[in-house]
Protein: Class I SAM-dependent methyltransferase
Organism: Hyunsoonleella aquatilis
Amino acid sequence: MKDIFGKALLDYHNGNYSEDIITSTSISGEDILPLPYLFRDFSEMPKLEQRALELCKGKVLDVGCGAGSHSLYLQKKGFEAKAIDISEGAIEVAKQRGVLRTEVLNILEETERFDTILLLMNGTGIFQELRQVSKYLKHLKSILNPNGQILIDSSDIKYMYDPDSYRDEDGGPDSYRDWIDANANYYGELDYFISYKGEKEIPLKWLYLDFQTLKLACETVSLQCELVLEGAHFDYLTQLSL
Ligand SMILES: C[S@@+](CC[C@H](N)C(=O)[O-])C[C@H]1O[C@@H](n2cnc3c(N)ncnc32)[C@H](O)[C@@H]1O
């Protein structure tokens, strides 16, 4: 990893903001990820994130914290929050912004236990591929205190494919779903490309999971999975517990 994401966060934090991050995926063209969005305060967060923060209890782990916006909010509310990220630049920024507990760490290496584990801004992305979901869920479960909760947001990105092009004579969502299943890996598995100031990151794998598939995966590792809130654009917040 070249840590392009971290470099962009550091630039923004140090007052060198001149460009945004450019993203694209295996199924979509170029898009802009505005750097200020990664420094959002509570009032600028989507409703799903606001609800997740309101549900927090006890000691919180902010997984893939980025610039640390969620941890900062929680700290101000009096919570003990630990922010982890694999990006050194992100952790440097979170630290400089005032997050008290930070660590450059892959979630799979975390060994402390928590009452709330937060994975926000398409939290399932970190799982990368459908076949890895149970490995991540089992690990998250192993670092959860008995009455703890895991709060994850994601989206059902079926809408990003064009169903009208693939309807058979019967039409309908089932035949469309069959088509997706027969012709590809899970439709939420994307290759994700980011570039910033002309530099390209090594392509990442990024997973969007629909709620039913996540619920099924949770059942296989004996986690309860409740739908907390749905957003306006096929996005949702879910709460997992033991
Ligand atoms: C979409 S960003 C979200 C940042 C932040 N949560 C927010 O909402 O602004 C995803 C973050 O997850 C981090 N990440 C990816 N895989 C990770 C892993 N296995 N363990 C910890 N962090 C990871 C990335 O470096 C990145 O900062």
Remarks:
- The pocket of S-adenosylmethionine is lined by residues 5, 38, 63-66, 69, 84-87, 90, 106-107, 120-121, 126 (CB under 6 Å).
- The longest helix spans residues 172-183.
- Residues 165-171 have pLDDT under 50 and may be disordered.
- The two ends are 34 Å apart (CA to CA).
